[in-house]
Structure formats: C-alpha cells, structure tokens
Design a protein that fits this description.
By secondary structure, the chain is α/β, with parallel strands linked by helices. Among the domains are: about 180 residues, Toll/interleukin-1 receptor homology (TIR) domain (Rossmann fold), CATH 3.40.50; about 150 residues, 3-Layer(aba) Sandwich (Rossmann fold); about 70 residues; about 70 residues, Arc Repressor Mutant, subunit A (Orthogonal Bundle), CATH 1.10.10; about 240 residues, no CATH class; about 120 residues, Alpha-Beta Plaits (2-Layer Sandwich). The protein has a 13-stranded parallel sheet. A ten-stranded mixed sheet has the order 29-31-33-34-36-37-44-40-46-38. About 45% of the residues are buried.
Length: about 1350
C-alpha cells in the first residue's frame, strides 16, 4: 500500500529567522544526544504502533527518545521533555484519536514546532487512523476548547490550535495499508533526512575546534555573506568547512556541499552538473532541468534570493567558477556561503557581497606531533624510542595536516628505528606521491608560464631572501613584482615580517621535485642546480649544458658536510657552456681559466671570497642586476664596462679593498655596501653622480672619512696639480635615503661637515661610535625617520632635531646633556637613551638636574632644598635614565611639574599646610592674602618600598574641572625599612578659585606603602615674579602646554609616559589596578600601548618595521645587508604634516610640507632651545646650562653665512619620476651660492634659496625638466651696515633678468616689457 506523502519540502511559511543568540553545541556536547523524539498519546499507541515504531528506529541505529523509557513516573514531565526535544535532531508526531485530549501532548507539539522554527529541525507527522483535515480544522476528537482547568486557558488553547494547523500542513504519512511497510517508510524517511545533510569527517580531528572558535562570529554577522577559507594545499581548508557545515546545517532551510569544484569543472559537463546539484539542494531536493550554464546561473540566482541556505563551495580556483555557480545577484539575508580556495585574490572588492577571509592556520608543534602519532602509532604520543624521529618528521611537514597524515600512515608499517631513519632520509631526495599530487595542482593552476618559472627559481635559490632584493634580480625576465603577488595570492609563497620570502617546506620540495624530474640522473641537464654536491661535480668534470639557468656552489658547506676532503682544482670550462645561465652563486670557490665566455644573460652573481685582486677585464657584466663579492680579496674595484643594469653592489668585509674607481660607470646603482672594508681609503668622487643611489653602507670604513685621510688625499691631489688644490668636502649623492656611517671615527670638520645639506630624501642616518662633540642642525631633513648616534661618547648636544623624526638612539652617549627639537615638542615613537648619564634636558619630555647645579633663584620657593643638595637618594623608575647617574638629590621637570625625592629629613619647611595620616586629604581654597597671588600647590607624601614593581599616581581634583593624575618618570627609592619623601610642585594656581574643594590622594597599585600625605598652597607677592611665572606658564595654558594626548575619555589627564598594561600582562600588576586609579567609569584598555607621547595615535608607523631596521644594523646575518627593511609605511600624526614612505628603495618619501635641504650653519637662532615649549620655567635653568646654550653658535661660525642678496625661486615641476627629481636636486646643489633646496612632493614645487644666478637655475631645471614653470621669485636684500634699515624684499629684480625670468614670463603669457611693468622699481641704495 502506498502512503499519501509526496516528496518532502520545507514550506515557505515555515521559514523564520534563526535566533542569533543560540550557541550551537560542539561535537561531544550532551545537547545533541538524540536522533529522534517520539511524541504520542500513550493510551492510544504506547503498547502497539509506537512500540513497533520505536523498535524499528532503534534497529536502524537511530537513538530515539520516548517518555516511558526515559522519565520516572511521578516526576515532573515538562522539563525532561523540553530538554529531550531540544536535544533531538528530528521529531515524529504520532497523531492518534485521543492525541488532542492530552495537554502534555499538545505542549510537546508546540515545543517541537518551535524547535523547527528556530533550528529547522525535521518534523514528521504520522496520521494514525485519523484524517489530516480533522487535525487541520480541529474537528471531531481534535476539537479543543477553553475549560475551567488551569491548563485549558484561552492563550494555551489558541496556541495549540495553531500548532495543530501547522503540523497538519506538513508533509507526513497517513496509515492506509500494512503496518510493516508503513513503519519501513517512516524509518527510511527519518534515516535519509538526517544523514543526507551530513558530510563525512575523519575521526580524531586535531585543532579543529580552536580554528572554529576563531570564525564563529562570522555566522552571526548579518552583513557578511561569504567566508573564504584560504591556505596552501593540504592545510585543512576542506576539513574546516565540513566541520562548520556539520555543526550549523540545522539552522538553515536548505543546504549544499559541493566538493572538488575545480577538478570537476575541467570535465566536459562538470560545471553544468555542479549547477544542477546546487540548484536541487537550494530547492530542497526538487530537481530542475538546466538547459545551459548561463541559464543555470540565472536560476540559481533566483533561488538564492528566496531560500535561507548554507552552501559550501570547496576548491574554488578562479573567480569565473564562483560567478557561474552563484551569479552576482543578491542572496537571502540569512544565507551563508563558505568557499575554500588557495587563491587569496580579493574577488569581492567590487561586489555587493561582503566576505570575511580566514587564513588557514597550520598545526603547531604539539598538534602536529599528536596527528602524526595517531597515524603512525595509533596513539596521541610517539612510541618509546621514536620521539626524536617523530619530531624530525614533524619538522619536515611544518604543520601541514595532509603531509603529517600521509607521512604518519606511510611510517606506520615501519616497526624499527632503522626503517624510520631510512624513510626519513629518503625525504631529502623525493616527496611522497600523495602529497606531491595535491601540491602539484596548486603549481599547475598558475595562469602563466613565467609565474611557474618564477616559482621554481624561488624554490631553488631564493627562499629566506629579502623580497625586494629578489624582485630586482628577477623582474627583468619574470615580471617578479606581478608574479610574486600571484604566488602570494595562491598561497604558494608568503612574506615574513622582516620582508623575507618564505615558502612551505613541502611546496619547496615540490618545486625542486619538478626540476629534478627534468633529468633524474643528470643534474647538468636540468634547468637549476641547487645542491652544492651536484654543482661541484658539474664544475669538476666540466659538464655544463645549455639548459642550466641557475647554479649554486658553497665549498664551505661541502667541507663541513665531509663531502669533499681534498677539493680538486675547478675551472671555468663548465660555466662557459652554460649559455642561458642567469643566476650564479659561488661561495668560497676558486676558479682558474678564462672569464670571457660567461653567459651574457647573467643577472645575479654572488661570489663570496672572490680570490682575484681586481675584476677580470673579460668578465661580461652588462646585464648584471646584483653583484655580491663579500669577503673578497679585491684590492681595487673598477667596473670593466658601463653597467647599466647593476642596481646592487655588495663588497662587505673585503678587508684588502683600498680603492673604488669609476663608480659613475654604474649609473643606476641603488645599493652600495662597503661594510667593514677597513682598508678602504678612497671612493671615486664621481659617486655624487649616482642619482639612484638610495642606500650606502660604509659601516667600519675607518680610514675613509677621517680628518687625516681627507688631508692626505688633498695633499696627494695638490702634488699632482702643481700645488693648486681647492678643498672640497666629502660629498654624498643627493638621492640617498639610508646612510650608514657607524664605526667610521667621524669628526665634524670643514672637510666633512656632516650637514647633509643636499640629501633631502634621507630617511635613515647612522653615525654611531663617532668622535664629534656637536652636530649641525638637521631640521632641514624633513624625511628623516631614524637617527642612530649610539656610543658617540663625546657628543654634548643635539639641537633642533626635525619634528618628523620617529626614532632616536643615543645609547651610551656619556657626554650628552641636552636634546631639543625643531617643533619644541617630543614626538619620538622610539627613544633609546640608556647610558646617557649626563643627559639632563630632553625638550618636551623631561629635565632631570642635580639640585647642586641649580641656584636658589632657579628653585624659587623651594630654594631651601639647597641645604640638602648633597644628600643621597637612589633614583629609580626609568633604568635607561637613572643607570649610572649620581645619587645626589635630583630635580625632575615633567609636564611642568617639579618633583624631587628626599630622605626622611626633619625640617619645618617640609611641614605641609594640610596633612593626613592616610593616603588622601581634602581642603577648601582660602582667600589669598592681600597683594599675593596663588601660584600652585605642593604635594608631599612619606612612603616605604614594599616590592620591586612600583606603580603609583599622585592625584589632584576639584569640582570645577581639575582632574590630574601624575606618575613621575623617576622617583627616589629609600633603603630597606627606611622612609622616603616625595615632594612635587604643581603650578596650577590659575585653575584654582577661592572656595574650591581640592582633593589630593596618592593612589598605589603596587610596590609602595604610604604613611602620610600633605599639601600646601604656594603664593607669590612680587609683580615681576608673577609676570615671569605667567610668561613661563604660557598665560592661562594648562600646565604649560597642550596635554590633549594625555587626556582620557572622562576628561581626566593621565600624566604618565609608560605602559602599565605590560606589567599587568606578565602578572606583575593585578588587573584591577586601573579601577583603583580611575574607578569603573572606563576600561583599562583605554591606556593600552600608552607611550612617552601619551595616547597611541591612530596612524602610528609600523614599529615592527622600524625596529627591524635597528636589528639589521647590528645583526650578524649576511643576507640582511642587501636591503635594510623599509621605513614606516604609515603617517606621523601632525597638524600640518602627513608622511607616507615608499615600499621599495626606488620610491621616495613624500611630504605634504616643504622640506629644506640646507647647511644648518647658515641658520641664525636667537636661542638654541625654548624653555617655554618644554613646559619649564627659565628660573630653573642654571647659569652653566645657559652658557652651554650659546656654544653651538661657535660650531655654526665654521661655515660662511652669505652677506649678499638672497633669492628664493619657486618652480612648478611637471615630472613624475623620482629619478628625474633627484637629478634636478643634484644639478642645483652644484651651483655656487646655494643655501638650500626644497621639494614639495604634494604640490610638485621646487624651492631654491641662495645667492645664485637665476639664469643658471633656469638652465639646470630646464635641461632635465623642459616643461617646468617658474611660479614666483623673491629677492631679499640685506640691511645696510651703515644705516639702521631692515631687509627689503622684492618680487623680481629687473637688473637680474635671465633665462629663468623669461621662463616665468612665458609661463604666464607675458612679454618681457610686461614683466618689467609688473615689478616695483629697483632699490637705489645698493646699486641694483
């Protein structure tokens, strides 16, 4: 007999929003413990039909719940039943004659339908000897009405009626034939419904739950339609997609899982079949015919708009596959689509769909070892004796689950340690076919041949090399910029934080396997030879071939491995046969023979310890991009020809190198490394002609830039020119971006002034370990980001540093006393100053001066401290600042607050006006005495030390808006059991009014115990003193300056220059520390990352990259010298300056403001620093300090300041090439009378200042940029020394008409006659 059920489908009116607050149970959770819940009327069917149905379900392997088995009689039913319904994947409702007479049955029915509505659980109604229409219309025994009983209320009855109507509308079974057939149909339906929605997952999944946790939020974000799981082949993308699918399919109306799409799409009808399957799944099982792929896309688009669906598309490689399957239209707002792919291209960039990308994380070491062990040993840990070998296998697989599973399974048949070792040794020569097959698909999916060739070159030679270095070498032949991006997007390559190319070990082995298969037993017939043993045999036997494009040989490595005991003499014969050779690395190799017939295609020559004294004249280097001859025996380097392509030259540690000649024959050189060329005494002066040179590393060239060496060279020049010699300063090319002069024994002299006046692009400057005492102002270096002056033991002052500087390192500059900035503000993001034991002034940051060096007038109302100036207190808090410093009493100036720490002295002057034996007090501000004025407030407290981590704040607040909390950079640490006193003067008198209630407290989070605190109001009765205080405080400015960077969202000022979160995260400070300080109004995360400049800015530079530069400078790794990591890629936040730096050495930092290129000595300053901008009173600066402030003028007088006419010419540049711009700057810098050159990249404007001939300026610019336009010109005349007159400025001087002025006239369409009329009459005083 047939039953009346048709093919099942979910009705549209049953589709409802799933509750996003519901948390799905994970595998193993008891919340999903039943397959089926049986709802029935016991008196009708318990011992008959329902009992038979239950038995059939159990025999089919379905875990089934029925109340008489699971619930003890006498217990409350509803809680047990509700939990069982929610714990079941499906429900069968047996609607029998008296079903509707039971309130428990009706309540079960309502709960079941709620579960269906919320979680799309499957519900199957069985009409057992009843008519579905009676159930739907509530006729006969299904007619229910309100009764006096407490359960039959109006609300319940209405709810149950709706439930009966809803269940009758569902597709179900009506008994009308043999019961055995009827039962089989029910069981088959349930079984198929439950199982068809699941996908198979392998047992013993490792790490999947943690990865699932990382993406669960995506399921609940309505604005994210897609999840793209990306990763290399075998990384577990498909497994994770299955895991997500199995946990969440119940929440959707329909679902579909399409596997291995890319492979299936390659079949003749593969895409068409995939569309039919997807459409059928979306429509809930109803199959629709699709005449063509384009028709299929349209039908799927329509279906996606109406059905709440979960879809997984596994292994999408190309965007067109995705479009063909889903179209580009809208989808149901509650649908979710997961794709797995090895392609990380941003396919949804221009789409209305929103996609979250998840990069598949490989397994960590512990997870890897467990997965390998499960496959190899059948347990979580390796068998005894196999731990080391298992760890070796784990290292080989590098966390790839496919590799671990395959390798573990293959090793499971090896029972001995010897067999394991043998099989692991085989991995050095080959890769397992199952792994290789998966990864080969990734390689073959690359769209272009040149990308596949690029992949093989990197796999064989350039893994762990700097990306920009590799790009320069491979770009000419393989479009490496585009190709590397493709390889990264296809998960075949990655870039480390230090900019190195990284490739997974299995991918690298796959690439090398591909090359090895070119000629399995004949390495000389392959395209690439990367094993030194193979290369050695080829060179020894002279077996080169036309197929070889790359070869590397490291003799030191062969000797270490014992592969070569007595190296044979090697000749160049084999190399002469390699006509296609592009990449050649010969480390510690000596070759005999001719160099004339080397491949003309050679792009990269890396020859460590090159053994000849000069470059062979016959060696063709015309197409070389990079030449590395580190550790060479060269004595003279001279290019044998013009090297148009060479961009990188590395002669590091060439200790015999004396001279570099004709460097201008490498016109496009970008990187020159002379690191530790100790004997180098001369670099050809034509180095200034290298307009592309961006990086020059002269670290350790001690004889190149010293005064004695320069004088010696000038004497030699004089002797060869009949005694006629003009002293020329040592010059650098104007294009430099990074300059390393560490360990060069530099002194600041006329011949080597260290002014860098014509290097406007300079970003990084290292002058470490030099002998100068002073440096010129560097405020013209507007691109300078990092300045390293560490170990300059004689350096005394650093004045007027550019405001754009991001990092400053002055480690162990023991004589350094003062640092000031062009802007007067401290804006450094990294500042290293350990060992600067005499550093007392850091403008905008702090000033720390021994009280012994201050006069009583400097101390003002605290002049009584002079009596205790020789007392000693150990200063702590900032190890970099306090290490090695005197223990005599120190005065700290910070945030315009003066503070000092004292021993427990007994002095009436120390007695506070208001005192408390606790850590807080309050008082009302009284009226000021007549003719007196309130200046500020002294705060004191006594304390003992109770730990090693000190975290405390002094706080002052009033009802009228004053809310300050201050953590001093340093304070005194009394000895064990001793009492110390902290005294701080807060100049906030202008914010306090009579009657204000002032609250003072010392809030301690760690390390201190407060015994007493006090406060005293400070007044002044002297008009002059009042004016001085007001001047130094900036009138009504709060604490002497802008403190907005230190203001919290509550309005309070958090005057602190350290990140206490770091202490909390390592457990040295309790998490409630911020609540102790602020209360519960805000969270401590507001001060996360707090810096010396206060709140972290929104657009801070990448400190990782900036720190990488520092590490590379001091690091020993040879590879690092090719490319010093790029400067910051973000912007320094400033009112008028926004910077973005380039990502390649060839690009230049662009600035929104003009940056000058000038000799700092030409600038006259009335004061060398500004105390007001530091938030300090001049009264507190000692005579000694004031005397030192004038000393730099002596340094400046070494350069001549022009007394004549100064002209400022502004030129609108139209060229976009950085190289062209650098050429213009270089040409102009050679003109006599140049003071400064400035280039504004944002406006494309060049500004030249100096006593220069305008015609020469016009000629210099026009020969490189013929379309430039002069947009303004100004002439400044000096005042007459015999008259008290001021400087005069004119727009144009008629007596100086030149080509430049004519260019101006042409630019503005004016004749020479009109040009004269535009200008004011010439001055008569100076004869112009």
């Amino acid at each position: 007999m047939d039953n009346s059920s048709a093919s099942r489908s979910s009705l549209g009116d049953n589709s409802t929003s799933f509750d996003q607050s519901i948390i799905m149970a994970s595998p193993g959770d008891d919340a999903t413990c039943y397959d089926v819940f049986l709802s029935f009327r016991g008196e009708d069917t318990r011992d008959s039909f329902t009992d038979h149905l239950y038995d059939a379900l159990v025999r089919a392997g379905l875990l089934t719940f029925r109340d008489n088995d699971e619930i003890d009689r006498g217990r409350e039913l509803k809680p047990e039943i509700e939990r069982a319904i929610k714990a079941s994947k499906a429900s069968i409702v047996v609607l029998s004659e008296h079903y509707a007479t039971s309130t428990w049955c009706l309540e079960e029915l309502w709960l079941i339908l709620e579960q269906r509505r919320e979680l799309n659980c499957f519900v199957l109604p069985v009409f057992y000897h009843v008519d579905p229409s009676d159930v739907r219309k509530q006729h006969k025994t299904f007619k229910i009405e309100v009764k006096t009983s407490s359960k039959w209320t109006s609300d319940n009855v209405n709810r149950w009626k709706k439930a009966l109507t809803k269940v009758a509308d569902l597709t179900g079974f009506v008994l009308s034939g043999p019961e055995t057939k009827f039962l089989k149909d029910i069981v088959d339906t349930i079984y198929n419904e439950l199982d068809c929605k699941k996908v198979y997952l392998p047992p013993d999944l490792i790490g999947m739950d943690t990865r699932y946790e990382e993406i669960t939020s995506w399921l609940h974000q309505p604005d994210l339609d897609f999840l793209a799981i990306c990763g290399m082949g075998g990384s577990g993308k498909t497994t994770l997609a299955k895991y997500i699918y199995n946990l969440n399919w119940k929440r959707f109306e329909n679902m579909s899982f399409l596997e291995d799409i890319d492979t299936r799409c390659r079949g003749s009808h593969g895409l068409h079949e995939l569309q039919e399957q997807l459409l059928k799944d979306i429509l809930g099982g109803r199959k629709r015919k699709i005449p063509s792929v384009s028709h299929g896309t349209c039908k799927i688009e329509e279906a996606l708009q109406t059905k709440r669906t979960l879809i997984v598309l596994d292994d999408i490689v190309e965007y067109n596959e995705l479009v063909a399957l889903l179209g580009t239209g809208k989808i149901h707002a509650e649908s979710k689509i997961i794709i797995t792919t090895e392609n990380t291209d941003n396919w949804f960039k221009f789409s209305s769909h929103k996609c979250e990308q998840y990069k598949m994380k490989l397994l960590n070491d512990d997870e890897s070892l467990e997965l390998l062990s499960r496959h190899a040993f059948g347990s979580k840990i390796p068998a005894e004796g196999f731990k080391e070998l298992a760890a070796q296998a784990v290292r080989y697989c590098e966390g790839n689950p496919l590799g671990l599973g395959v390798l573990g399974s293959s090793l499971s048949n090896s029972n001995t340690i010897l067999q394991w070792r043998s099989q692991l040794n085989l991995l050095e020569k080959d890769i397992h076919s199952l792994i290789q097959g998966v990864l080969m698909r990734s390689y073959m999916s690359l769209p272009f041949d040149f990308e596949r060739e690029l992949f093989l070159h990197i796999a064989c030679f350039f893994v762990d090399k700097d990306m920009d270095y590799v790009v320069k070498i491979l770009e000419p032949d393989y479009s490496a910029v585009s190709g590397i991006k493709t390889l990264i997007n296809r998960c075949l390559l990655s870039v480390s934080s230090s900019n190195k190319l990284m490739m997974h070990r299995l991918l690298q082995e796959t690439g090398r396997y591909i090359v090895r298969k070119e000629a399995v037993k004949l390495p000389e017939k392959r395209s690439r030879v990367w094993l030194s043993a193979d290369s050695y045999k080829i060179l020894r036997k002279g077996k080169g071939s036309k197929t070889i494009e790359g070869l590397t040989l490291d003799m030191e490595k062969l000797k270490e491995e014992g592969a070569v005991s007595k190296p044979s003499d090697l000749t160049t014969d084999a190399l002469e046969k390699m006509e296609k050779l592009k990449l050649l690395q010969l480390n510690f190799v000596e070759l005999t023979g001719s160099h004339e017939n080397f491949s003309e295609d050679l792009r990269w020559l890396c020859w460590f310890e090159f053994h000849l004294r000069t470059i062979p004249s016959g060696l063709f280097m015309g197409n070389l991009v990079a030449l590395d001859m580190s550790y060479s025996k060269l004595e003279v380097f001279e290019p044998p020809m013009v090297l148009q392509s060479l961009q990188i030259l590395n002669l590091k540690d060439s200790h015999n190198l004396l001279e570099i000649r004709n460097i201008s024959m490498i016109p496009h050189l970008e990187t020159l490394v002379l690191w530790n060329c100790h004997s180098l005494v001369r670099v050809c002066e034509t180095i200034v002609e290298l307009c592309s040179l961006a990086l020059l590393n002269m670290t350790g060239c001690k004889h190149l830039c010293t005064r004695a060496q320069i004088d010696l060279l000038e004497e030699i020049k004089a002797s060869t020119s009949s005694g006629q010699v003009t002293r020329q300063p040592f010059s650098f090319p104007c294009s430099l971006q990074r300059l390393f002069l560490k360990d060069c024994n530099l002194e600041c002299t006329d011949s080597f002034p260290l002014s860098f006046g014509v290097q406007p692009f300079l970003q990084y400057l290292n002058l470490s370990n030099s002998f100068f005492e002073f440096l010129p102002y560097y405020d013209h270096l507007k691109n300078l980001r990092i300045l390293d002056l560490s170990f300059c033991s004689r350096l005394k002052w650093l004045l007027c540093l550019p405001s754009t500087l991001a990092e400053l390192y002055v480690y162990y500059c023991e004589s350094l006393e003062k640092i000031t900035f062009e802007s007067g503000q401290f804006m450094l993001q990294e500042f290293g100053y350990e060992g600067c034991i005499n550093l007392s002034v850091i403008e905008g940051f702090l000033k720390l001066v021994p009280i012994a060096k201050l006069d009583e007038t400097d101390l003002g109302h605290l002049k009584w401290l002079k009596e205790y100036q020789n007392h000693e207190v150990l200063v702590v808090g900032d190890d970099e600042l306090t290490k090695g410093r005197s223990s005599n009493l120190q005065m700290l100036y910070e945030f315009d607050i003066l503070s000092t720490s004292l021993p427990n002295i007994k002095d009436s002057k120390m007695t506070p006006e208001y005192i408390s034996e606790s850590s807080s007090l309050s008082f009302d501000v009284p009226s000021c005495p007549k003719n007196w004025r309130l200046k500020g407030l002294n705060v004191t407290f006594k304390y003992t030390i109770s730990g090693d981590d000190w975290a405390w704040f002094a706080k002052i607040s009033t009802a009228n808006g004053v809310d300050l909390m201050y953590n001093p950079r340093v304070f005194g640490k009394p000895g064990f059991g001793e009492v110390g006193i902290w005294l701080g003067y807060w100049p906030i008198g202008n914010t306090l009014d009579v009657g204000d209630k002032v609250n003072v407290s010392i809030d301690v989070m760690s390390g201190l115990e407060v015994h007493e605190c006090g406060a005293s109001l400070v007044y002044t009765d002297h008009e002059i003193a009042e004016e001085a205080v007001e001047d130094n405080m900036g009138g009504k400015k709060f604490l002497g300056g802008d403190l907005s960077g230190f203001q919290l969202s509550t309005g309070a000022y958090y005057l602190c220059r350290r990140d206490f979160i770091e202490l909390m995260e390592v457990g040295r400070l309790t998490p409630d520390w911020f609540g102790v300080l602020i209360g519960d109004s805000i969270d401590y995360t507001e001060v996360r990352g707090w810096r010396m400049t206060g709140r972290p800015k929104q657009l801070n530079p990448s400190f990782t990259k900036l720190k990488t530069v520092k590490c590379i400078i001091h690091g020993p790794e040879l590879e690092e010298i090719y490319k010093i990591a790029e400067m910051s890629k973000s912007s320094l936040v400033h009112k008028t300056v926004e910077f973005t730096s380039s990502s390649t050495p060839g690009e230049t930092m662009r600035s929104g403001t003009t940056f000058e290129v000038s000799d700092a000595a030409t600038k006259e300053k009335s004061e060398s620093y500004n105390l007001e901008t530091m938030g300090m009173s001049k009264a507190f600066v000692s005579d000694e300090t004031m005397e030192s402030a004038s000393t730099p003028h002596v340094v400046k007088s070494k350069s001549v300041v022009t007394d004549g006419v100064s002209k400022q010419i502004e030129v609108k540049m139209n060229c976009t090439s950085d190289t062209e711009n650098r050429k213009v700057v270089k040409r102009l810098s050679e003109l006599a009378g140049i003071k400064s050159i400035a280039f504004d990249y944002r406006e494309g404007k060049l500004t030249v200042i100096g006593d220069v001939d305008l015609g020469e300026v016009g000629s210099c610019v026009s020969e490189i940029e013929p379309y430039a336009e002069i947009i303004s010109m100004r002439v400044t005349f000096p005042k007459n020394p015999q008259e008290d007159t001021k400087q005069e400025e004119l727009n144009l001087n008629p007596d100086l008409l030149s080509a430049a002025e004519l260019l101006f006239a042409r630019s503005h369409r004016r004749t020479k006659q009109q040009l004269y009329l535009l200008r004011p009459p010439p001055p008569t005083r100076w004869g112009f």
